[in-house]
Write a structure and sequence with these properties.
Two copies of one chain form a homodimer. Chain A has about 475 residues and is of the alpha/beta class. The first copy, chain A, has three domains: about 180 residues, FAD/NAD(P)-binding domain, CATH 3.50.50.60; about 120 residues, FAD/NAD(P)-binding domain, CATH 3.50.50; about 100 residues, 2-Layer Sandwich (Enolase-like, domain 1), CATH 3.30.390. In chain A, the strands form five sheets. In chain A, strands 1, 2, 4, 5, 6, 7 and 17 form a seven-stranded mixed sheet that branches. In chain A, strands 18-19-22-21-20 form a five-stranded antiparallel sheet, with helices on both faces. A four-stranded parallel sheet of chain A has the order 11-10-9-15, covered by helices on one side. In chain A, helix 2 packs antiparallel against helix 3 and helix 2 packs across helix 6. Chain A is globular, with a radius of gyration of 24 Å. About 0% of the residues of chain A have low confidence. At the A-B interface, helix 2, strand 3, helix 3, helix 8 and strand 18 of A face helix 2, strand 3, helix 3, helix 8 and strand 18 of B. Strand 3 of chain A pairs antiparallel with strand 3 of chain B. Chains A, B: One of its GO terms (molecular function) is flavin adenine dinucleotide binding. Chains A, B: This is Mycothione reductase. Chains A, B: One of its GO terms (biological process) is 2-oxoglutarate metabolic process. Chains A, B: Belongs to the class-I pyridine nucleotide-disulfide oxidoreductase family. Chains A, B: It holds the Pfam family Pyr_redox_2.
Amino acid sequence: MEQFDIAIIGAGSGNMIINRKFADKKVAIIEADKFGGTCLNVGCIPTKMFVGSADAAQHVLGAERFNLSAQLNGVDWRGIVSRIFGRIDGNVAAAEQFRRDNDNVTVFKSHAHFVSDHVLELIDAGDEANSPAAVAEQRISADQIVIAAGGHAHIPDHLSQLPAVMDGSVVLHTSDDIMRIEQLPQRMVIIGSGFISAEFAHVFSSLGVEVTVVARADALLRRHDVAVSQQFTQCAVEQWDVRLNTTVIDIVATSDGARVVLSDGSAVECDSILVAAGRNPNTPGLGLHNTSIEIDEGGRVIVDEYQRTSAQGVWALGDISSHWQLKHVANHEARVVQHNLLNPQNLKAARHDAIPSGVFTSPQIATVGLTSAQAQELGLDVVESTVDYKEVAYGWALADPVGFCKVIVERSSGLIVGAHIVGAQATTLLQPIVQAMSFAVPAADLARGQYWIHPALTEVVENALLRVRL
Amino acid sequence: MEQFDIAIIGAGSGNMIINRKFADKKVAIIEADKFGGTCLNVGCIPTKMFVGSADAAQHVLGAERFNLSAQLNGVDWRGIVSRIFGRIDGNVAAAEQFRRDNDNVTVFKSHAHFVSDHVLELIDAGDEANSPAAVAEQRISADQIVIAAGGHAHIPDHLSQLPAVMDGSVVLHTSDDIMRIEQLPQRMVIIGSGFISAEFAHVFSSLGVEVTVVARADALLRRHDVAVSQQFTQCAVEQWDVRLNTTVIDIVATSDGARVVLSDGSAVECDSILVAAGRNPNTPGLGLHNTSIEIDEGGRVIVDEYQRTSAQGVWALGDISSHWQLKHVANHEARVVQHNLLNPQNLKAARHDAIPSGVFTSPQIATVGLTSAQAQELGLDVVESTVDYKEVAYGWALADPVGFCKVIVERSSGLIVGAHIVGAQATTLLQPIVQAMSFAVPAADLARGQYWIHPALTEVVENALLRVRL
């Protein structure tokens, strides 16, 4: 049995750990799928590139409010797909080749299955598709193991077990494959109300697909601040066919696609179905029952502030252990694990405060910290302030009727505890607030302690801060 | 002679000073032109709104790189003008009415002419155009006088004294009137190479006008960092007919416009000429020779850090006294004067560090602090770092080939001394750097002391900071 100093399961964020400082370590990197993980292959990066084309289409379609007459004549879907994945696949291949060229690293294109805390059974992934009988197996051991195996798109049982799905007459797409479909559908049903649903509804509708969004809840993006959820739901209703308080009770194959039968008695004909029901950690199949590694009720590997699991010498990071499911959080955790592997006597804790996130839909959304409801649950005494894009000059320039910046400030300290932005550039506009939260700069100092370009869009943030009355 | 506690000359930024805290003061506000000053009427705000339409047109014209086929069918220039000035003129009228409704404020629509340090002759501006002979005059005095009379577009003598200009057969437009022309010209010559030229070249060319830019210098935006100037000049050459190292030696009227004769022997036919040769302070005509108020060689009123002129009880702010000619600087100075008028025993100094500025052209530009050349002149030991938009995921999504973020960091302190961004959202992206400079956060802490959303465009800033090797 081959012995390694470090074994890393998953070549997404996990692949960031190994650098020159590990040159004297014998390292195994085990990846059953593609290098780059969810983010690069089926997540953040390709979706944002599709959003790039969607935003561009929206710019054409929205030209009239700028007193321009424009028309969108065509969408070259195959061109979009090939531009995006041409770039991404090249990066993925380069990342794998880079590792294969490292003298001290062995790359296993395998599934990893724990036999004990420090022994892994590797099940060859490369042969699965063609000759499952030929699956090769081997065991390795490692002093330190990093679990960075990520997550996967979740398809709820009530959908996966429908007869038409079971017999293959209806295909349920997820974010894993929807970006590589051969051609644009005419009509798509998206099941789900979270950020993945919001982003794909924007992408496909902007590119000309009739989109129906089916949401169990009474609003979209319900985990966001209520002001965001309300504004976004309103915008969604104006853009797409949105069915709130509704579930899918059946899907049947039709001659040219499928009929999705809903709990309100209606049905939607479509030729493509996307399930956007969240993502689950990739712990099943890892064999964690053979170890002392503990998981929580959601199936996530439990880690402490140093990213240590309950098994000595086993670490975890990213979507397999994090509630956040955000690449920038996984990257941070990877840096923490990197440091801690190199400095076992001087461990560094991961920092999980002031974590921003974005939803690249239409309109764009960015959020950090607490929602109003969370602040209330925590019993904080807070002051809220909201300024609309249409109240600042650059919002006039953008002719933006819906955008806003909301800040939530703790009265006693004057510190920002949450902020929520809807509208153009939201994910860029949020950064000064993230920075202030991270460096403990009070809202008033943030507003008046620096210049803000007039009349840049940043004035919507400046004015929201100025309007806070403690 | 009517006596006031405070007289404010100019209702641009000067109009911000008076609030409820001045309720017991008798105030005169003297404005010969429109309330709102340069920024609202002929500067930042309308130009950005025109840029809004220009950017929208560029989005249509650039759709192909997103694998979309789109076309721009028409530009409703009158619609643009009327949308923009409909909004602005309403705000201007409301601002004046608000002041007229203040019990303690008298509004004089007049030119102000100093007779002595504290006595002003008011020359009625309202009647000038129609019956100059009927000009009314009166004198007022005030204990405190604030000079906030702004600046005006400069037309160099070698242009204004050309025969065709003198006899009126050729009109030289400036930023004062070019936004209200009746219809879009076919061909426009823009004389100048600074930010006003850059913004209007973008506006008019995007809306379909053939634009020629005539620049005396060997590059556009030469006051910017050399990396910005070079990149922008390259982009300009690809978009417009740019004549560098060239001056206008004559302009002659033609049957359908004008012929602009250049120093290189060539000539450009056009039907509209815009002079964008900078702005000069409005000190001529103020009668400052009758006072102890000093001006510098550029005609600017000289002020100290408290915005005091050399005459006791006379203050100045904004473009009439500032090298910056930026609205956000004028606003800050107005707040300083406001404070100092109310707190004569506890004066506050204006802060003129880390002042950002933007050029809303194509591509957008934002800058703060020192250029490389300035850092070198000061003998600073600095490290520079540049990351291109195309190196980060959101740059891929934007399909942006030219954008970049450059940071200049002092080696000994690790503090950022300058930053320069070219590309989409530049003026928004710059803010975290402005903030770090204002709060003395070193580059390394700025990069790693907070989360940056992946994959938002902010990563271009994050990565530029991370690439700094001190």
